[in-house]
C-alpha cells in the first residue's frame, strides 16, 4: 500500500506539471497571436515591403483591392473601422491618396501609428508639360509633386526604411529581426538598381513614351526621358495641343514603342499608337497587382524585372 501511495503521488505531480506545461504553451501561443502587428497599407508596394520586413510577426492588409488603380480608390466605412483597430497604417503620401488627409483626422493615433512612407525623401515635381495637363484636371495630387517614388529602387529602399522604423517603434522587442529582414530587402533593391543601371546605361535611345506620367523617378535615376501622354494621374487627359506635340515629338525622334499600363484605360494612348504606328509594350507602375499576377505569385521584383526587359526592347 505504501508503494501505491508513493506511485500515486508521483502520478499526481506528473499530471499537474504536464497540465501546467500545456497551459503555459497555450498562453504562449495566445500571447504570440496578440503580439502580431496588424498593418494596413494604401497600396501594393507598401504592403509588399511591410510583409518582407515584418515576416511572420505581422498581418498586412492592403486597402486597394486587387486589380484596382489606387488613384481611383476611396476607402469604405468598413475600411475606416479597420484602420482604427490596426497597429500601423502606412500610406505613400506626396498627394497620391487624395483621401488620406480627411481620414487621418478620424484615426485614433494612440492606437494606430500613421506612417508616411515618403517622409524625408526628396520629391520630384512634374515637368512643364505634365504641369499643363495637371492644370487641365482637378486632380488629388499635392500641387505638382510626383508621388511615384517606389519605381526608383534607391528611393523604395528609403520607403522600406521608414516602414522598418515604424515596426520597431510599435514592437521594439523584435528590433533585431526587423533590422535583419530590412537588410535582406535592401540588398535585393540594391541588386535591382544595379541591374537597371547595367542595362539602361547601354541603350541607344533614351525616350520613354508612356500612357501617363508615372515614371519620372525611374527615368531620372537612369538617365532617360519620360514623354507622358497623360499627367500625374492616369485620368488626366492631355489637351489637344499637348497631344499634337507628343505625336510630333515621337515622329521626329523615331519612337517606335509606346508603353501602356495594365490597370489603366489605354484609349488616349491608342490614338498616339495609331498615329505614329508604334508597337505597344507594358511598363508597369507597380501600383497594384492583377488577379492573374497574384495567382502566379508575381511580386514587386518579378514585375520590375519584366519592366526592365521591355525597356531594353524599346530603347535598343
List the helices and strands and how they pair.
Elements: H1 2-35, E1 37-41, H2 44-54, E2 58-62, H3 77-85, E3 88-91, H4 100-104, E4 113-116, H5 128-135, H6 153-170, H7 175-200, E5 207-212, H8 216-221, E6 225-230, H9 240-252, E7 257-260, H10 267-276, E8 279-282, H11 291-296, H12 300-315
Parallel strand pairs: 1-2, 1-3, 3-4, 5-6, 7-8
Helix pairs in contact: 2-6, 2-7, 6-7, 7-12
Characterise the protein shown here.
The protein has about 325 residues and is of the alpha/beta class. It folds into two domains: about 35-120 and about 145-195, Nitrogenase molybdenum iron protein domain (Rossmann fold, 3-Layer(aba) Sandwich); about 205-315, 3-Layer(aba) Sandwich (Rossmann fold). The chain contains twelve helices and eight strands. Helix 4 links the parallel strand 3 and strand 4 (about 115). Helix 2 (about 45-55) packs across helix 6 (about 155-170), helix 6 (about 155-170) packs antiparallel against helix 7 (about 175-200) and helix 7 (about 175-200) packs parallel to helix 12 (about 300-315).
Amino acid at each position: 500500500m505504501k508503494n501505491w501511495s508513493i506511485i500515486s503521488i508521483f502520478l499526481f505531480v506528473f499530471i499537474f506539471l504536464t497540465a501546467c506545461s500545456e497551459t503555459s504553451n497555450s498562453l504562449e501561443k495566445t500571447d504570440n497571436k496578440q503580439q502580431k502587428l496588424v498593418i494596413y497599407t494604401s497600396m501594393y508596394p507598401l504592403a509588399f515591403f511591410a510583409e518582407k520586413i515584418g515576416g511572420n510577426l505581422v498581418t498586412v492588409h492592403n486597402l486597394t483591392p486587387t486589380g484596382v488603380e489606387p488613384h481611383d480608390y476611396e476607402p469604405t466605412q468598413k475600411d475606416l473601422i479597420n484602420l482604427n483597430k490596426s497597429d500601423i497604417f502606412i500610406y505613400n503620401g506626396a498627394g497620391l491618396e487624395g483621401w488620406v488627409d480627411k481620414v487621418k483626422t478620424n484615426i485614433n493615433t494612440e492606437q494606430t501609428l500613421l506612417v508616411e512612407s515618403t517622409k524625408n525623401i526628396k520629391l520630384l515635381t512634374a515637368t512643364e508639360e505634365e504641369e499643363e495637363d495637371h492644370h487641365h484636371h482637378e486632380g488629388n495630387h499635392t500641387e505638382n509633386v510626383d508621388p511615384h517614388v517606389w519605381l526608383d529602387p534607391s528611393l523604395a529602399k528609403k520607403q522600406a526604411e521608414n516602414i522598418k522604423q515604424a515596426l520597431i517603434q510599435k514592437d521594439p522587442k523584435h528590433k533585431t529581426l526587423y533590422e535583419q529582414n530590412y537588410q535582406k530587402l535592401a540588398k535585393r533593391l540594391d541588386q535591382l538598381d544595379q541591374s537597371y543601371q547595367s542595362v539602361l546605361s547601354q541603350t541607344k535611345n533614351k525616350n520613354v513614351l508612356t500612357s501617363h506620367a508615372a515614371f519620372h523617378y525611374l527615368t531620372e535615376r537612369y538617365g532617360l526621358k519620360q514623354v507622358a501622354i497623360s499627367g500625374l494621374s492616369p485620368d488626366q487627359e492631355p489637351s489637344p495641343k499637348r497631344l499634337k506635340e507628343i505625336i510630333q515629338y515621337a515622329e521626329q525622334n523615331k519612337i517606335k514603342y509606346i508603353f501602356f499600363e495594365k490597370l489603366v484605360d489605354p484609349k488616349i494612348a491608342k490614338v498616339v499608337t495609331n498615329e505614329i504606328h508604334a508597337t505597344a509594350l507594358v511598363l508597369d507602375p507597380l501600383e497594384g497587382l492583377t488577379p492573374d499576377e497574384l495567382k502566379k505569385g508575381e511580386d514587386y521584383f518579378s514585375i520590375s524585372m519584366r519592366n526592365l526587359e521591355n525597356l531594353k526592347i524599346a530603347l535598343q
